[in-house]
Amino acid sequence: MKKIKTLVVALFVAVAAAGMAFADSVNLITDGTFEGAAASAWVAEGSSISLKEGKGVKDSTALYVIGKYSWSGAGKDLTKVMDLNSDYYMEIWFKAYEKDNQTRKANCSVCLQPEGVDNPDNYVYMMLDDDGGKYTGSESVPFTNAGYTKVCGVVRGEEMKAELGGKKCINITAYFKTDNPTRPFYIDNVVLRKIN
Question: How buried is residue 65: exposed, middle or buried, by Cβ count under 10 Å (0-12/13-18/19+)?
Fold first, then answer.
């Protein structure tokens, strides 16, 4: 696994964002439900991705991911929809492949590429981690093939800027990965909303 720089941000696992004041209720990821979407709108991160009908949260379409090595997955370029002056709520639903009887672990991060930095090992990875009094770790949100598990949290603009250390951010990508992606998995209902 790549050496990554992490920053703990607010995460709520399988808990609705009740009372959260969104600046706009619009999902900034226009094809987050994968209905009528194209797999090419997503980034294959060391993996193969395709759309599967009838495999989503409500028997809808989901993104099917099978990786080549540990912590492979799928991603979404957010450079044109996120800025560093706002806070964002993110939500992703994971489910293991039907024939995979093991518990897998989800990893979700927002990756920032600083200007002048070409090596991904030196990018800034904003991880989604627990802040509800019990640390679970970004690599330990469990999910199985029994049903979809929601992972959600907040990425804060001020924290992103602090981690960049004054460097300009030239690319923002969200990555959704698992600990053993050589076993296929699904993601669905990906949401990104501006809080303020």
Answer: buried
